[in-house]
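Suppose you are handed a protein chain with no further information: no name, no annotation, nothing but its sequence. What can you learn? This example shows the usual starting point.
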Amino acid sequence: MQTILVTGGAGYVGSHCCLALAATGFLPIVFDNLSNGHREHVQWGPLVVGDIRDAAHLDAVFSAHAPVAVLHFAGRIEVGESVKDPGAFYDHNVGGAITVIEAARRANVNVMVFSSTCAIFGEPAILPMDERHPQAPLNPYGRSKLMVEQVLVDYDRHVGFRSAVMRYFNAAGAEPEGRIGEWHEPETHAIPVAIQAALGQRPNFTIFGDDYDTRDGTAVRDYVHVLDLADAHVAALKRLLAGGSSEAFNLGAGTGTTVRELVDGVVRATGKPLPLRVAPRRLGDAPMLVADNTKARRVLGWTPARDLDAILSSAWRWHQAQAAADR
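A reasonable first move is to predict its three-dimensional structure. Written in C-alpha cells, the prediction is:
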C-alpha cells in the first residue's frame, strides 16, 4: 500500500480526500495542526499533529512514513482575515508550501497535488471561467494561492518537481454516511449557514444583494460536491504517479446556482422554512462565478456526479446529526 502525505487532511476537503484515497488503496498520512481541522475527521490513516512551517518535523514524517506523493491542503483559508493580517497568510500559505516542497524534495518525493482556489482569478472577465482566465486576485488569500501556483511552475521548470493544481469553485456537501462533513468555526459558508438557520441555530439566512444582473437578482455560484472534488484529486494523483506532466484544473460543476435557488434547494432538502433577510451587496462579491471544467473532464476523465440536491441532502444529514449529538 503506497502512502500519501496529506497536509491539512483533518480539514473539510482534505478529510474527504483521505476517504477517497483509502477507497482507492492508498494510505493517507495526515499532517495537520488542527487549527481548522478536526481530530475526529482523521479516520483512514494516522494523524501527525504539526506545523507545515516546521522543516525538521516534516523531515521526520517523510523518513518515518516514506510517502510517494503529497496532497497539500494546509493553510489559512479565511478571506476576511487575510485582509486584516496578510502577513500571516503569506507566512502560512506561501512559506509553508515552500517548506513542504523542500522537505518532499529532500526525501526524493517529486509529486504534489495542490489545493488552490478560483479566488486566484478575481473578478470574472469571461464566463464560464477556464484555466486561461486572467489572474487578478482581490485579496491576500487569493494572492497567496496564486503565489504558490507560480512557485510550483518554477519548481517544475527548473528542478522537475511536478504538480497538479486544483482550483475549487464552491466545495459543498458531505460524506453520505455522516462520518465527516463541513465543519468550520466560525461558519461562514452559504450552505452550512442556511442549514443552521433552518435548524433554528441562527435567526435567519442573509441574502447579500438582490439587485444583480442575474436571472433572479441574486449572485450565482458554482457548487461542486466535496466527494467529486476528492475524486478529481485521486485522478490527478494517479496521473502524476504515472509520469504525467504538471497541469492546473478548474473544478466546478460547470453550472451556476443563484442564492434564491440555493434557498429553495435547502427548503426541499430540510423540509423546513428558511427565514430570510436581504442585505446590501458585500464589497468584492462577483455577480457570477462558474467554472469551465472541460479540461478536467478531458485530461483527468473526471465528471462531477452529484447535483445540487445531492449536495444539499448530504449536507442536511450531516448537520442534522451534529445537532442531535449536541442535544
